[in-house]
Amino acid sequence: MTRHALPAALVGALLLATNAEAQIQRVQAPADGQETTVYALTDARIVVMPGRVMERGTILIRDGRIEAVGPQVAIPADAHRLDMTGHTVYPGLIDVASTLGLPPGGSAGAGDGNNDDAAGVPGLQARRLAADVYRPDDSALDALRAIGVTTVGLAFKGGVLPGRSAALNLGAGDPHLQILRSPVAVQVALEGRRGGYPATLMATQAYLRQAFLDAGHYRLQLQAFARNPSGGPRPVHTAEQQALLPAVSGELAVWIEASRENDLKRMMAFAEEMGLDYVLLGAQEGYRVVDELAAEGRPVIVSLDFPAPGAVTGRAFHSPVTAAPGQAMPRAAADSMITRALHANPATLLGAGIPIALSSHGLFQPADLMDRVRLAMEAGLSADDALGALTLTPARLLGLEAVLGSIEAGKLANLAVLEGDLFAEDAQVRHVFVEGRRFDIPDREPTPAAAPGEVNVSGNWHANISSPMGAFSLQIRLQQEGNRVTGQLTGPMGPAPVQGDVDGAAVRLSSSMAGLTLRIHVTVDDNRMSGTVSSPDFDETIPFTATRTPGGDS
Prior knowledge:
Layout: H1 8-17, E1 24-25, E2 39-49, E3 52-62, E4 65-70, E5 80-83, E6 88-91, E7 93-98, H2 130-133, H3 138-145, E8 149-154, E9 163-164, E10 166-169, E11 179-182, E12 185-188, H4 201-227, H5 239-248, E13 253-258, H6 261-274, E14 278-282, H7 290-296, E15 300-303, H8 330-343, H9 345-351, E16 356-359, H10 369-378, H11 383-388, H12 392-397, E17 415-419, E18 428-434, E19 437-440, E20 459-467, E21 470-481, E22 484-491, E23 494-503, E24 506-513, E25 516-525, E26 528-535, E27 538-548
Helix pairs in contact: 1-4, 4-5
């Protein structure tokens, strides 16, 4: 699609109308007043980019950037030498669509008071900037750096028009000084508003269509007013139209969250109708529409938040009534087949010529990213393709390919230094550099084993619940030490802490989510929980089942 620049007069009018809220795109020197440090990483094995490896070389870092890289680099007297013998240096990984430090997409969240369209309308917050509401937890930052991630794209989860994404480095200090670009894209999703409008799928689609049509009409009004300010009506500005204007003008990409087969088809048709420069986000069932995706030729951000097999489109058609002699039970066989297809989704899309980036989007713990990448590799994704989907392609999607994604002179010194191969389960990240700032990574602590005779519930679980208050799903992240269990539930009202204990195969959990107290009593058989959930807020005791999702600890 051909894109045309806005006339200069229109640009000026727009700047006035939006109170100088312009797109920020900047790359800065190391933050927080740190002293300039010059490092020389010598005798390293250097993975410059996918498919290009230097078996022995030196990387010179100065003022937060890579000054030189090669087998023969002159080392200045002011450089601090680090002997990297036995280590491999990779480009810092990029989690292109992380929910790190963000409120749920359908909630107002902290810091939204300045957005006209955010007040009282969760999920309809097109003007909201992820960079403004970013509240990272130090332990989460440490966990991401510990797997080699040095940059994230921030992307809301859920909502209808949840806001605009951003790109940040994972340095220390004031997070707003780590911003590389904001906004990156306008986000769109199909998660209706519980108890409000739009609630249904049909209403959500209608709302989105009207919102983008209104923004397109607003653009025409601005153009007409710029051509003849004295001869026509003055455009009336709204926060939502101003936020969507760069998207309908082709100046800002639209990230469209869609996971299921039919939603992917719906949103591709919507983007085509509106003439949007778009990227699909999620696409866990992309393998089911691979031909349509290949025909579009658009990049896809593939979430590694694998859904439970029972939630995948067409699940019922994969399970025969009875098992054939000598074969596994129908449910187990069907679930195994679907799980393999989910894990192979990135390789399937790449095999069809579709550019992909890999992301933790939707995962409880973004630091589980590498565990999920390994599952995708076991299902056919090559190491070079995985590295490209975590470096070069994300850098392009964030509009930062000039400064991120590979180890080349002039780029930001975002590096991961490892003992072992990046994708090996026993690999150990020793250091990361974020804009030249060095972070030393401690050895990983082993996961405590359960006491004798007890199950271990550590990992990610997925549950669907039908309650008197309606049907909803829960994602559960549990960590077990001895017989003590802690973790987090995430449901329609956002995240909430959970705690409990294990007694043999019996597990008792409790949580309070938005004032609703949940008590879950289950028994665990391998990767399946079954039991009941109750609450003083309703009289019934409800059947409860949950499945440990791929990549969870067993």
